[in-house]
Amino acid sequence: MPGPLHFDAHAEVYDRARPRYPAAVWAELQDLGLLRPGIRAIDLGACTGLATGPLLEAGASVDAVEPGPALADRLRRRWPAAVVHVGTAEQVELPAAVFDLAVAATAVHWFDLEVVVPKLHRVLRPGGHFAVWRNAFGDPTVSITPFRERVAQIVARREAVNPQRGHGELDTHAWAARLASSGHFVTTHIRHFSWSIGMRTDQIRDLFTTFSNWEAAEVDEAARAVDELGGQVTEHYVTPLIVLRRNTLPDA
Ligand SMILES: C[S@@+](CC[C@H](N)C(=O)[O-])C[C@H]1O[C@@H](n2cnc3c(N)ncnc32)[C@H](O)[C@@H]1O
Fold first, then answer.
1. Among 83, 106, 232, 250, whose CB has the most other CB atoms within 10 angstroms?
2. Spatial distance between the Cα atoms of 99 and 122, rounded to a whole number of angstroms
3. Does the C-beta of 45 come closer than 6 Å to ligand 1?
């Protein structure tokens, strides 16, 4: 059953298997003036720190929010400079108006946005930003590869039984509209970063194990497909980035 605790149960494989975010995403945040030395950032759904680490390396001080205890433990050991809060984005207690930048990297789809969006408005300083991105594993603008045909067959079989609900990972404009719908934030920037990566059978097995909606038998099938295709495939991925600015609301 897909659920957020999936990641806690696979903390080690997650850290090893998930590709890092493209350097262009970090450069974009820097070019926009949102990521700079001395800022205070909050990373929601930090997992093993794939966003926490580069934020720290860019000179930010970082609070990281992660509900999974094994993940939070790993995060503390790997990135001791981060202040780690064990809890959900909904539950965690945070001081008001102290952060310059909030980020949710491959995490926002887990949040109750009716709770988290107003909370981020409270904890960000006036003029603060909320940056949301994810690695989407499959770029629909690239011609389908033989491996992706096999993946599509597995997904189609699953969705015939259990259709996916809600916005897809690449419905970026729908996500942006949803994040701004309460009026707490205004979308200021949307960009997609496309990239490719060579993956061996063991890497595909590890990566697909980290997907919360993939059963073990489906992961086996995907790994077998890579073997049948020569033991290595090129994957085309895309990272959509949404930047929102904290809105100034009229006094209640
Ligand atoms: C796909 S992982 C992405 C993590 C990380 N930001 C990264 O870029 O690798 C999603 C993370 O969100 C966490 N999570 C799930 N529900 C959450 C919630 N309500 N509040 C905060 N984090 C949550 C999970 O424990 C998991 O670590």
1. 106
2. 9
3. yes
